[in-house]
Amino acid sequence: MLSERQLKLVEILEQRPCSLSELARQTGVSSRTILRDIDYLNFTLSGRARIHPGGSAGYQLDIADRRGFFQLLQRHDNDDRLLAFLLLNAFTPRLQLASILNLPETWVADRLLRLKQRYERAFCLASRPGQGHFIDEPEDKRIILLANLLKRDPLLIPLPGITQSNIEKLNVACRNIDAFPRISSEYLASLILAVYALRNQLTAAWPECRQSSLKKRRGAGGHLSQ
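The structure corresponding to this sequence follows.
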């Protein structure tokens, strides 16, 4: 699955060639990380397109198969949204998922099967005839799974009252919390957003969360990436 940063690299290079240092600046990571991302993108694109140095102009994106290229990007871009909606709802019919994502039902059916196979060791993606698909995990684990998605993109799903401005304020507040030295402020913020999404407990005032509750949730998903 392509990360939000890798998708952003593709978006930048679709518009114009760009130097390595400029790509690093726009994505907020090191040049070495950008080079690793480019290698991974070229592997994933599998000949549909290729990112390569273009001399003084910088790195550029050459697309050989435009239809295959955009279909591949669409699949990667929507996997996270599909998982998020499954985490947020007890049962979601396939037709409803297709409508939410504005994609063909056949695509959703294919992705559900592939996601089930890919993440079978991480969580249980199940279905119930007549009711729909769901992620069959305890609430604590669902919070951790959703937090991992929201860490990559806090605006992945529409949440009432959540704006970019509110997210920035939340990140600032989390940077001032020193009770969790092993958790990054971005991940702590994503945990709070996940709790808000799943339980609708937080308000626009961002009330203080109990530290013991956050520690419990972190412990429940300690094996997952932060």
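DSSP finds ten helices and four strands in the chain.
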